[in-house]
Amino acid sequence: MLKWSNSKIGRYKIIDTQKGRFIVDTFRSTPKILLLATSPSIVKFKMFQISSNNDAFNKDKGKPSIGTLSIVLITQPFVTLIYQLGKQLFINYSVNDYMIFKVFLFISSILLSIGIYIFVSKVDEYKLKKTGSIKITEYSHDLVIKTNGQKNYSIISFLVLLILMAFIYLKSQDGTEAVILCVVSLITFGFMMISRYIAQTNYKELEYEIRENGSSDVK
């Protein structure tokens, strides 16, 4: 059984095995985004080994962190501004008369969140180098998990929500479209972040291999 735990750097997870302690990079996985892997037979992660007593990556339990409520309060003025500007855009410029442009805005809100997710992951990469003096080329092992086709329904839930939001968005005609676009962006970003934790919840008790330089250790 793989023992997963969060590290102090979001996209990186810690696993403890009989072969030692490893840092797993959830961003460097195959399939690339686990959220989209509805039924993978094999999932691979890049990782590197650290000493069993290395606590540099441990999550600081006593250290205060920015919680969800704090993030909401910090971003509230920006959300309000975006909503006001968006509402004026839809009402004053009759965006509803240009359906192609309206659809373009919906797709753009999704792509924007994906871009933010990639940016946040790159920030995590910078933090990793700063914390452990690790170069990205120093991944020494691969974690190969045999899932036996275990299904992941995250993408289905995600698509259902997007379709529902798209239907409401296209039917709206009073400027509330701006709010819907913000919600779509949040939903997209949220589900992208969920992909970081799929391994911890779904791949704990499955057969796995730890591969180093072409060799393999079967567990």
Characterise the protein shown here:
There is one protein chain. With 219 residues, this protein is an alpha+beta fold. Helices cover 46% and strands 21% of the residues. It has five helices and seven strands, in the order ββββααβαααββ. It has a seven-stranded antiparallel β-sheet. Helix 2 packs parallel to helix 4 and helix 3 runs antiparallel to helix 4. The protein is elongated, with a radius of gyration of 21 Å.
Which descriptors apply to this entry?
219 residues; alpha+beta; 7-stranded antiparallel beta sheet; 5 helices; elongated
The largest sheet is: 7 strands, antiparallel
- Give me the number of helical elements: 5
Helix content: 40-55%
Rounded to an integer in angstroms, the radius of gyration calculated over CA atoms is 21 Å
List the uncertain runs.
Answer: none
Query: How many beta strands in the DSSP annotation?
Result: 7
Question: Spatial order of the strands in the main sheet?
Answer: 1-2-3-4-5-6-7
The chain-level mean pLDDT equals: 81
Q: Which range does the strand content fall in?
A: 15-25%
Structural class of the helix and strand makeup? Answer: alpha+beta
Question: Which series of helices and strands comes N to C?
Answer: EEEEHHEHHHEE
Q: How widely separated are the two ends?
A: 9 Å
Shape: elongated
